[in-house]
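Dear support,

Our group has been running a series of protein-ligand predictions, and this particular one with beta-D-ribofuranose is the one our PI (initials K.S.) wants archived with full inputs and outputs. We had some confusion internally about which version of the output was final, so please treat the block below as the authoritative record. The input we submitted was:
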Amino acid sequence: MNKIPVIVDCDPGHDDMMALVLACHSPRLDVKLVTTVSGNKSLELVTRNALNVLHYIGADHIPVAAGCDRPIVRRKDHAEAAIAELRRHSDSIENGAHGASGLDGFTFPEENPKKVIEIRAVEAMAQVLRESEEKITLIPTGPLTNVALLIRCYPNLISRIEKISLMGGTCQFVFTRPFMEFNTFIDPEATKIVFESGIPITMYGYDATYSVLYDQTVIDRIASHKNQTSYMVSELLKAFMYRHNNTFKWLGLTDTCPIHDACAVAGVIDPTLVTESKMLHVDIETAGNYFDGATVCDYEDILGLPHNVEVVYRMDNARFFDLMEECSARGK
Ligand code: BDR
Ligand code: CA
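Confirmed final output from the archive:
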């Protein structure tokens, strides 16, 4: 079977880390490029994290290009402001789910020979699309800023995109604000551009990602493999469970935790992992007082508008965790 060529656009982040491990170590995927975008942390930090993860897991051959350091329209500190606001309104821990570094809970070696390539993310993505014989699947796991600019700057290359499998949005799962999910909230205008692009989209929003909750058993299984990738993954999963559950206390999770971004990769590796999904019309709110970036899903099909997004609701937990373990074990 031919490998599926993909580009992962990310803002690591613990769950982005898991997404990268799945993408780089699944025999089904051929990762042509990793790009970074500011979101969970500044562009500088998330790019450093991406380089550290790829080097540590033995994926030095995959080029990394740095992308946008702010949303298309919103303030540069939009994400930091959102995290600070959350802390003001609840007793969540400092620095949010990913900590000060964006990957709290694991210390990477200080020296990393892996560097970003000279050209920026949008240009690098365009180059991959132009040069690839096969169409490319995009897997964005951060705000959609880079992908939206790619669509706007290179409309002639849209037809070279097979599909977009993204982590973002929510349909019926209420998180901080109704309809709010971090990635779509951080860059609503970019989200709108992507969702209106006509490119086939599969959306792994909170409905899907909170249906896949790992626990200590999964961490122990991964840790039982003695390679350094499995060690790193298990330490970061442990740290993320603590940070996530103490940041979003009202969700009431204690011994289980989602691993959002990994869902968007897992579904490309093995579409049969999706056990429930529906084609829906999804609009993006960009002018609201309360619901900026909301993915407004017409889940009862009341408006009768064209279905632009496959919204995933549920995934096969057991096989998902098998995949996390297998890909971690295949790493360096
Ligand atoms: C998304 O926000 C980030 O914190 C995670 O990395 C994930 O991409 C979940 O809402
Ligand atoms: Ca992310």
